[in-house]
Design brief:
By secondary structure, the protein is of the alpha/beta class. It is built from eleven helices and 15 strands.
Length: 362
Amino acid sequence: MPIRHLRISGVRNLQPLVFDPHPNVNFIYGDNGSGKTSILESIALMASGKSFRTSQLKHVMSHEHDRIEMRVGIEDPDRGDCEMESLRLRGGDHLLKLNGSILTSQAEAAHWLPVQIIEPNTFKLLSGSPEERRAFIDWGVFHVEQSFMEQWKTFRKHLKQRNAVLKQKQAEWLDVWNSGFIEGAEAIDTQRQAYLARFKPEFIRILNELDPAISVTLAYYPGWEKDSQLADILERQQERDMVLGYTQSGPHRAELRIKCDKQPAAEILSRGQQKTVVAALKIAQGSLFQQESGRQTIYLVDDLASELDEKHRFALCKLLEELKCQVFITSIDKEKLTDVWKPISSKVFHVEHGDLKQVDNE
C-alpha cells in the first residue's frame, strides 16, 4: 500500500512541500540539516503518532507555525485510493481523518500506514530497554491479529486497577482483579508466542542473506517463569507486590532476548554488525507481514551509509527490492545511495534548505 501523494506543512525546517513519491524506491539526499530526515520523520509521525528523533512532539513543529498539517494519499489493496489527514496543534490537540471520516485512535492510522524504520538509533532494539523489544513484537502481532489491540487495552485496564489496589494495600480486592488480569495476560502471551514461532525462521533466513557470518538467537521471556502458572506466581509475589506497589510479573514485563554466543548481542557485536541484525529484524518483520496479510510495509531507511559498508548496503537494498514494497532512503551523498544499487524503478530527490526537488536519477 504505497504512498502516492504527500503534503507536509509545519515540520521543523521543511518548506511546505507536495510531492509524488515512486511506489517502489525513493532516494533522498542532502546536507546535514537540509531536512531529508524530517521527511521520513513526518511519515513516521503520520503512521505511529511518534517521532523517531525526539520524545517531545513540540520539537518537531516549526518555530514559525502553530500546527503540523499532513495529507497522505495511499493505495490500499481493498479500498483503492485513500487519503489520510493529520492535524496537530501546538497545544497538543490532534485530529486524524481517513477519507474525511474521523479516526478515533492512532492505532487505526497505524493499520492503514504500516511503517518500519531503519535509522542510526535503531541500535536501541538491541541495547535499549525491554520496552523497545516488546514494542517490536507487538507491532507484528497487532498488524496480523485484529483482536490484539483490544486484548491489550483490556489487560492494561486490569493491570492499572491491580496496581491501584496494591498501592492502597487492599489485599481483599486482589482476587477481583486477578482473574481478568490472568486471562488477559495469557491471551496476550499466546499471541506473542505464536507470532514469534513464525517470525524466527524468517529472521534467520533474512540475517543469513545479509551476513551469513553473524549468528544470533532469539529467546522469548513471557514476563514470568515459563514453567510456573501465573496465578501461582501472583500469589507467591503478593506480599512483595504490596510493598512495591506494582505488579512484578505479567506480559508488561515480557522480553525478547537477542543473544550471540549466549551473551547479549549488543555486548558482542560491532556497531556495523548490530545494524545488520536490526535491519534483518525489521526486514523479516515486514516480509512476514506481507506473507500473512497480503499488504506491504513502507520502509524508511535514514542515513543508509551509516555503519554499513558497501557489501551490506547492497545486500540490504536487494532484500528491500525483492519485497516489492515502497522504500524511502536518505543519505548525505547521492553517490552513497546509488553506488551499489540501481533498482529497476525509482525516483531521486534533493533536499536543500528544507526544499525538496526531484532530480535526474541517472
